[in-house]
Amino acid sequence: MLSTSYSLTAEINRQSALEASIAQLQTNISSGIQVHVASDDPQAAAQIATIGRQQADETVYASNVKVAQATTSLVDSNLTGVTTSLNRAKELMLEASNGTMNDTDRAAAITELQGIASSLNTAATATDASGNPLFVKGSAATQIPIGNGTTVAAADSYDEVFGSVTLADGSTTSIASVLSSSIAALQTTDATARTTAVNSSLDALDASATHISDAQSDIGVRETQLNNASDALASSALNLTDERSGFESTDVTAAAATLSSKMTTLNAAQSVLASLSKISLFDKIS
Q1: Which of 44, 101, 189, 233 has its CA 20 to 30 A from that of 35?
Q2: pLDDT confidence band for 85 (50 / 70 / 90)
């Protein structure tokens, strides 16, 4: 009698475990996920957590890359406009250097140079989509994290781009000063002094154009770096998703086969339990 009672209890417990396992398999199949809590598979859960942290980090890096790309694109376009303005300023000074400009021509050139100076100031104080200056005054450009231990400045500081043109004599000056000197050269009334000032301005404008060209080339290098980072992060995102899925996702085919097997076992066990129950009842009657 005791043996039969023990057998019934053991069988009920075994079937309860089977039912719980079947319910878990059904949940895994319907949700597509096999690790819901750490206790489901501690090792897999640890791997999933590690991958999740990396995915979170790389999501931030990818967002930073997009912001940096937008900024470098604006800077590149901005510097292209600066180059165009400097080239036009040089054209005007070249016309002045050949000695054929009369007072009216010089006045017109001065007016145009003043407009160029204004447009260069606008370029130097341009802002990004968030209203932040592209070229920060008084401090170095912000380094943006785009990877583990990797940062990039999407722009340069105001001083680096517009305030540090190296002249032929080794001294440095600002682009604004170069334009001011060009205007002042054309305003010089003495022809000989004007010619000297104009030639000096031409050299300074050449130095300015070279300086901006170098800055734009440097931005181009960073644009390439950002594009490479974007591609690498996109590739990593796919790999991490696949890796995480290997730990986390349900193998539906295998789970369905296991489910079928356990349900068959449960059905058979239930038949056995029914038989045991009849025997136990008969013993009691006896």
Answers
A1: 233
A2: very high
